[in-house]
Design goal:
There is one protein chain. This protein is of the alpha/beta class. It has 2 domains: about 325 residues, Adenylosuccinate Synthetase, subunit A, domain 3 (Adenylosuccinate Synthetase, Chain A, domain 3, Alpha-Beta Complex); about 100 residues, Adenylosuccinate Synthetase, subunit A, domain 2, CATH 1.10.300. Helix content is about 35%, strand content about 20%. It has 13 helices and 19 strands. The protein has a 10-stranded mixed beta sheet, sandwiched between helices. Strands 12, 13, 15, 16 and 17 form a 5-stranded mixed beta sheet that branches. The protein has a two-stranded antiparallel ribbon with strand order 3-4. Strand 15 and strand 16 form a beta hairpin. The radius of gyration is 22 Å and the shape is globular. Bound molecules: guanosine-5'-diphosphate, 6-O-phosphoryl inosine monophosphate and magnesium ion. 6-O-phosphoryl inosine monophosphate (IMO) binds next to helix 4.
């Protein structure tokens, strides 16, 4: 990592392999910071054949000398966080963790409300992970949210909780007609208990990170989700509720990084999508099922089968633009092996027009038909061949993989400098 501040964001619909890429660079970072999202995210790391599944914990947690920070822009479910800490501790990893006192807390009524919202929004919803993300974000904007720091101040917490509980439980019962049994007192006591358990990690992470930045420490900001799920730039309303493009790092971590950052966009060699939205390059039927199984495209968070399709350069082009990407990491090239030919979407045909930039209009996006270029594929690689390629570097890759990568670079005008050909930390090539 040649720059002091590096940002890693998803360039597609999430699950691109951000966790793996973050873990790869985390050892060289002093801080790894989550700045948005919540436990709707699921990041899988594979190190020495051990598999780690993370939801809230930053993907630098496996390095003892790297400090993991959950920034103010993250939505924290303390129950899930404690579970993750306990799983890691059982496996001998002591998280070196700091949590922002300004981060918002996902409460039980948010999760109940997510259920009602998803049914109400139906086909105009996103197919939420039902972790309470939209409701907790709405409460933040309504200004009756509960923040992590509130869990340490019993009187303040009581006052805020009374308002938030009333509002949310009324909607759950009266608007959605759903039951909600937990009393305000039960929630109060339970969450004060969580506050007590996570107290040791809670701090002013804005000051912590600001001081680190001034002291020239290396900071890696780890995004969750992906650009097409960003509520401003993605396929709205089929999105999540926190911004995940690189522009949000300063808001979500509380530091104005007044420097030139390295912004890495992670893109899978194909595309996957969990949830509802039009998906122009989707592969259906047998072809889709084969790719889903080969790529093990089943959600880390919900276990849902992920929809899969060909790489979409209209989407990637937008990511490069919106997140000011300096670098692209392409993952899962090994999964496309053995296909003979590979399609790649370079533009959409929308009502007879060739469109190269993502339309804002949902009705146009619903009518978008992919325009493909077809490139020759590459053969399956054995574990030994992969190992040799990671040792010998980019030049040793099959020419057809290099053609695929260089085609993408030319189309989206951004360098592909990180190439991942397996889930393991070492199955990675850095291209200078
Ligand atoms: P994230 O949400 O962007 O962090 O991605 P996920 O962890 O949800 O999904 C990516 C999946 O692909 C994980 O199971 C990773 O272990 C795996 N993975 C990442 N890179 C590669 C790769 O290059 N090849 C293969 N075969 N698997 C990969
Ligand atoms: P990572 O960080 C893939 C999707 C959901 C749904 C929409 C809204 O692992 O890449 P939400 O629960 O946020 O209200 O759901 O966003 N979604 C993700 N899809 N990877 C994720 O995270 C996701 N986080 C949310 O499937 O379509
Ligand atoms: Mg994921």
């Amino acid at each position: 990592m040649d720059r002091q501040v590096t940002v890693i964001v998803g360039a597609q619909w999430g699950d691109e392999g951000k966790g793996k890429v973050t873990d790869f660079f985390a050892g060289e970072s002093n801080y790894v910071v989550r700045f948005q999202g919540g436990n709707n995210a699921g990041h899988t790391l594979v190190v020495n054949n051990e598999v780690y599944k993370l939801h809230l914990m930053p993907s630098g947690v496996l390095y003892p000398n790297t400090i993991s920070v959950i920034g103010n822009g993250v939505m924290v479910d303390p129950k899930v966080l404690l579970q993750e800490i306990s799983e890691l501790t059982t496996r001998g990893i002591q998280p070196n963790l700091r949590i922002s006192e300004r981060a918002h807390v996902i409460m039980p009524y948010h999760i109940a409300m997510d259920e009602g919202l998803s049914s109400h929004q139906d086909n105009l919803g996103a197919g939420s992970t039902k972790r309470g993300i939209a409701p907790v974000c709405a409460d933040k904007m309504y200004r009756h949210g509960i923040r992590v720091g509130d869990l340490l101040e019993p009187e303040m917490f009581k006052e805020k909780l009374a308002k938030a509980y009333d509002f949310n439980v009324s909607i759950i019962k009266k608007v959605f007609g759903l039951p909600f049994e937990q009393s305000v007192d039960d929630i109060y006591n339970e969450y004060l208990g969580y506050g007590e358990k996570i107290k040791q990690y809670i701090t002013d992470t804005e000051v912590l990170l600001s001081d680190a930045y001034r002291a020239n420490k290396k900071i890696l900001l780890e995004g969750a989700q992906g650009m097409s799920l960003d509520p401003d730039h993605g396929v709205y309303p089929h999105t999540t509720s926190t911004n995940n493009t690189a522009g949000f790092v300063e808001t979500g971590s509380g530091v104005g990084y007044n420097c030139i950052k390295k912004n890495i966009g992670v893109a899978k060699a194909y595309v996957s999508r969990v949830g509802i939205s039009p998906f122009p390059t989707e592969l259906l039927g047998d072809d889709g099922q084969k790719l889903r199984d080969k790529g093990n495209e089943y959600g880390t968070t919900t276990g849902r089968p992920r929809r899969v399709g060909w790489m979409d350069l209209v989407q990637l082009r937008q990511s490069v633009r919106v997140s000011g990407l300096t670098d692209i990491a392409i993952t899962k090239l090994d999964i496309l092996a053995g296909l003979g030919e590979i399609k790649i979407c370079v533009a959409y045909d929308i009502d007879g027009q060739r469109v190269t930039e993502m339309p804002a209009s949902l009705s146009k996006f619903r009518n978008a038909k992919p325009i493909y270029e077809t490139l020759p594929g590459w053969s399956d690689m054995t574990a030994d061949e992969v190992l040799t390629m990671t040792k010998d570097g980019y030049d040793s890759l099959p020419q057809t993989i290099k053609n695929y990568i260089e085609f993408i670079e030319k189309e989206v005008q951004c360098r592909v400098t990180i190439i991942s050909i397996g889930p393991g930390r070492e199955q990675t090539i850095i291209r200078e």
